[in-house]
Amino acid sequence: MSLPTTPAVRSTVLHTARDELLEVVAGLRNDGYDMVIDLTAVDYVAHPGRTDLPEGVAGERFEVVVSLIHHRSRERARIRVQVPEEDPVVPSLFDLYPGTEAMEREVHDLYGVAFEGHPDPTRILMPEDWDGHPLRKDVAVGTIPVRFKNPAER
Amino acid sequence: MTDTTDRETTRPAASPEESTGDARVRRRDDGAVLRMSEADASVVAGGGYDPAKDVDEGQRMILNMGPSHPSTHGVLRLMLELEGETVLRSKPVIGYLHTGMEKTGEGLTYLQGPTNVTRMDYAAPLFCELAYSMAVESLLGIDVPPRATWIRMLMCELNRVSSHLLFQATNGMDLGAVSMMIFGWREREEVLRFFEMVTGLRMNHNYIRPGGVAADLPDGWEADLVRLLEIIPPRLDEYEVLLNNQPIFRDRLQGVGVINTAEALALSATGPILRATGYDWDLRRDEPYLAYDQVSFDVVVGAHGDSYDRYAIRLQEIRESLKIVEQVMELMPGGDYRNQDKKVTPPPRARINQSMEALIHHFKIFTEGFHVPPGEAYAAVESPRGELGCYLVSDGGPNPYRMHIRAPSFVNLQTLPHLMEGGFIADAVAVISSVDPIMGEVDR
Questions:
Q1: In this structure, what are the phi and psi dihedrals at residue B61, rounded to the nearest 5 degrees?
Q2: Which of A30, A38, A53, A96 is best to mutate for the B interface (most B CBs within 10 A)?
Q3: Domain containing residue A15: CATH number
Q4: pLDDT in tens, B332-390
Q5: Of residues B189, B180, B171, the one with CA closest to residue B228
Q6: How distant is the Cα of B257 from the closest Cα of chain A, in angstroms?
Q7: pLDDT tens string B225-263
Q8: What is the distance between the alpha carbons of residues B433 and B147, in angstroms, rounded to a whole number?
Q9: Does A36 contact B at CB distance below 8 Å?
Q10: Which domains does chain B have, with CATH numbers?
């Protein structure tokens, strides 16, 4: 299986489609990649003219970035998955690497990207009743006044 | 390792190949993680529960521990499902210190960035600055002068010492060894004094910056360092006398909070937690950055994966770090302490008065900031708590488009339910302490 790649320092960067993600990660796992070291996301909505995608990969609003590490051969791989705004759902890697649980919750919390098959899809950093996803680019900084006291107590 | 006695651990150590499957099954099915929302838990915990009616000893209860509990090292909250004194399942609840630092990072220039990330892991601030600076340098494609590399190494190893000393102090405090708390803080203060001399601050240094370091080492730094190297090793011997053979201390730690290699790998645990299981992995040796390939040191590994091993590894790592510091002192090269690319490094104050160009560069760097070519990069360093990585995306502007920190404490916290499962609630304190989470880094 040959996937589009982009050059990077000390790592292989692979681009894959959403529906192939589980297959690609399972393949890497069989190749000896022992650990998902990092899982995060980027919101590209404010960066329309990006040129860092290889041919054949169409940019979408969200990109989920998964970094894996192969301890024996000391190699790293980074998988970048494009996730459309209308349907921000990615298959969860929990069954392959349970260590992604907290990281997927974080991405879900801060970007609103859902992970299908995640055992605990709740917010992790923001309060449970929080509205919105703060790391999205259309959420501005400093628009919510800081409340030092509960209004009911005033 | 300083401990040679045989001891029983509740779970057998297994090779990664044969039991990753088990670890996964355990987690998905019965699991140690309490997968209950906070709202549900508060109903069970607080909603009309009357202990007088609870005559059945076998009944399970949900107990909230934290967020402000002295042993939780900040604002960690745990939801524990208990049967009597035994912890069945648990769930760490975090976010109490979430201040949106990754979002803040997107609004700061690359030069202002280190002031932000240094506040994440406040016990080992230099590592966050280092990872961030390395990611920026990788995007810029610039080199760092050798002297800056070695200064970074010196400061980071001393920071590892101070962070592990802090662990020794708080670990002792959590286990009731109060004198250890005072000793640990005392020695840490000696290291912080050196930091204050070099960087001007005890913590949150903003010392390592893209392109090099903020200032050269001051005159007479060797003398202070020699003093430090004389003070600390004998005190470490003292700790060993005080703690290693102390039966209560050993009983509280040995065989408590056991995790095997397969589980640690599956849960993405790094640093002393992974090494305590006997897995030999340290980025300084295995993916050398800075100049770690030019110094000699040992990677300390454990055997049992319990709290005692994690304690002993951290104590031993202080010695290894001091070994590196000694070598750095001998090998410290001369030359520049920061990159001389005028588009990246601000000019010295004196040049601004003489040169129009220097004035323009100064103005551009401090108002607009320098531009970084578009792209993405990930840089990782071995922090005292494990792999600390920085993922940066640039859109070609003067601020990072996305700045993500892979915080070791955040990921390592996932091991807590597995370390606590089946143990006593009294041991929960020892287990939290042995994971050594820094909440500033967990919540960011």
A1: -130, 155
A2: A38
A3: 3.30.460.80
A4: 898 888 888 878 888 888 888 888 888 888 888 888 888 899 888 999 999 999 999 99
A5: B189
A6: 18
A7: 999 999 999 999 999 888 888 888 888 888 888 888 888
A8: 37
A9: yes
A10: 101-443 (1.10.645.10)
